UniProtKB/TrEMBL annotation:
InterPro entries: 6-hairpin_glycosidase_sf, 6hp_glycosidase-like_sf, Glycoside_hydrolase_63, MGH1-like_GH
Alphabetical keyword list: Hydrolase
Protein name: Glycoside hydrolase
Pfam families: MGH1-like_GH (PF22422)
Domain Mannosylglycerate hydrolase MGH1-like glycoside hydrolase residues, every copy: 28-424
Single annotated GO MF: Glc3Man9GlcNAc2 oligosaccharide glucosidase activity
GO biological process assignments: oligosaccharide metabolic process; protein N-linked glycosylation
Amino acid sequence: MELLQKKAIEVLNKNWKGNFSIPCANLYPFQWFWDSGLIAIGFAHFDMPKAEKEIETLLDAQWENGFIPHIIFHTETDTYFPGADFHLSNLHPQASKKYKSTGMTQPPVTGFVLEELYKISEDKKATLEFIKRNIDQVYFNHEYFYHQRDPKNEGLVYIYHNWESGTDNSPIWDDIWSTMNPPEYTFERRDTTHVDPSERPSKREYDHYLHIIEIAKKYHYNDEKIMELSPFLVQDPLFNAMLIKSNESLIKLYKLIGGHDAKIKQLQLWQNKSIRSFNDKLFDERLGVYVHYDLRNEKSLNYISSSSFSPLFAGIPDKKRAESMIKIMMDKFGREDQYLCASFDPSSERFNPKKYWRGPVWINLNWMLYRGLVQYGYKDIAERVKKDSIEIIEKNGFYEYFDSRKKVHAEENAGYGGHDFSWSAALLIDFIN
Ligand code: DGY
């Protein structure tokens, strides 16, 4: 285990670029929002100044309206498509003047990451000072979500692009692609020069991705216009669970700091409303798990994915509901011949165990699942999630995602996508400490 930890530290140090980290070389050469948050948790175990800098750099790119972009383009490189020149974030009047970025965001992990840093810290006083300096920006980000992304004022925020979900090519989005018919764009993919195309989204999927960005750009990333016109408008359980988890952390941290009663009160109001709506609207009684809601077409997207279990991490279901969800997870995703936890329902015909978010196991979702299971008292299953996560990394290396079928690991390398991937390393460190 010591050797594995040593290797994980090497990966993180290699991907460190002076004041932020890249997720991995070539494939993702800039700073990504939720990657950065999770990477900071890894650094916190052995290099707190880097953990803090990672978050400070991320927050430094915040827009004047509280929005935090999903990619911050710190350097010029043409190894990534679509790069800064495609996104043109400067079209938005309140975009960062300092950094080029995208005009979409990613799951809001920053709140709970601040709390994780505090918990890990051996110098709580110094870490609390760091948190004091940065927490208001995270609060401002949550305010942005509740003011700009919750049109029905129900405490559930929407995402307008699959890249905002973090689960980029989930089969869930197929239902939305079937409502669209974008032009066939001409462009040069870069991801498929770094990674086997069978492990990445298709050309046609990219047409859809680009089309939504074209609409947003046309209206200068104006939130009202996006809300009115984006063909993709989804209330995502993973995204909203991250927001709820982060609200809870902000409440705890503000209490620790003292003297922020108005903010604590507001966070509590958001929190109560969010949890209520989440349970009422995003739970599918027939499937017995949480699902996505397509706000554009006003219908639930009834599929089971690893996002369906993420509400455990945020303490959203009651005990009874949690119990039945976990049973469903074990029946479908947790058989002896499978590694926990596939990113999409292995019994679905849309399942593909090699292709990005259409089936492979991801360490970040496993880490959340582990935490959720521990909180609800499912120690044995939690231990299995941890053991599986460590085992697939030990067998294959620090890949971006892994095959969920055990037999494939016995025969060949079953790690896919980017290699020496930062959050796989960071969360491995957290798992074993
Ligand atoms: C990619 O390029 O696949 C990224 O995940 C987009 O955020």
